[in-house]
Design a protein that fits this description.
92 residues, alpha+beta, 4-stranded antiparallel sheet, 6 strands, 21% helix
């Protein structure tokens, strides 16, 4: 599941505690900025389908650290351009 609008102070332990109320948490990935290492305010929680469905229903829009959580099914992102960008160079 995608979990967005996390407070920047959120820890994996706090997110685990919140989601484990609705089933078994298999994995948590908190996303950080690659340059600064600071939290980006979102992450992913892996649970079984039934547990994930319950957690989404219960937690989407719930206040967590003063912010309403956005919890929904994670979507696979397709990589745009597949590394084909040539920096705008033109061939003649």
């Amino acid at each position: 599941m995608y979990v967005g609008n996390l407070p920047f102070t959120a820890t994996e332990e706090a997110v685990n505690a919140l989601f484990s109320q609705h089933g078994t948490v298999e994995k948590i990935s908190m996303i950080t900025d690659r340059d600064t290492g600071r939290p980006r305010g979102f992450g992913f929680v892996e649970m079984s389908s039934a547990d994930a469905s319950r957690a989404m229903q219960a937690l989407n829009g719930t206040d967590f650290g003063g912010r309403p959580l956005k919890v929904n099914e994670a979507q696979d992102r397709e990589r745009s351009a597949g590394g084909q960008y040539n920096g705008g160079a033109r061939r003649h």
